[in-house]
Amino acid sequence: MTMKPLMIAIAAASLVFGSAMAQDHSHHHNHKDHTTLGAAQVSQEDSIYHLDGEWQTHTGETIQLAELQGQPVLVSMIYGSCTTACPVLVNDARRVYQALPEAYRKHVKLLMVSFDQDRDTPAALAEYANKYGLGENVWLFLHGQDDNIRALATLLGVRYRKRADGDFDHSNLVTVLDTKGRIVQRTEGLNRPVDEAVAALMKVIDDNHLMHH
Q1: Which residues are 63's β-sheet partners?
Q2: CB 3.0–4.6 Å: which of 16, 37, 164, 178 could bond 159 by disulfide?
Q3: pLDDT, tens digit (0-9, with 9 covering 90-100), for 145-203
Q4: How far is CA 30 from CA 25, 34, 81, 84, in A?
Q5: Rounded to an integer, what distance in angstroms lies between the CA atom of residue 27 and that of residue 128?
């Protein structure tokens, strides 16, 4: 009978210890417990090109978003050290692009904007583009200041927050912008079908007669 209290004590201790371990994720770095944030509502009247902040590209140039107008843009917000959702989002953008008929592809820009002002320097983004084989001209990775990142995320309805470990919880969203930088279509989630985004891009290109340029 004397064994029982001891067993209960051990069980209780392991429960306490177990829950302490569970809360302290620093013991196992590969256990990334990210929270996906749902996308916020957006206005389809607002253009991202009204934002006048400056951004650095992964090729080392300084640009304003307005320089992208005149073509449809497929935009997503990611961060480079994310190994869970972000590579899937980048691949989703690639899947949309590859599903476009060839003649349409040259009219589209794939824009990946980082949440991570500190770690995603232009050089880090260049390395990221290189790692995933995204070197061709269609891809543009942007590093910006925190207030510019926040303003863009608000217009796109991308919710994000920085965690204590320096990583980010964020919405998973791929957005189609028209030639004036207004939202025409959004796909939320990962590995989603690409048909609606492809159709939206083709419509922008057709409506603006870009094929004839």
Answers
A1: 55
A2: 37
A3: 999 999 999 999 999 999 999 999 999 999 999 999 999 999 999 999 999 999 999 99
A4: 9, 11, 12, 10
A5: 27
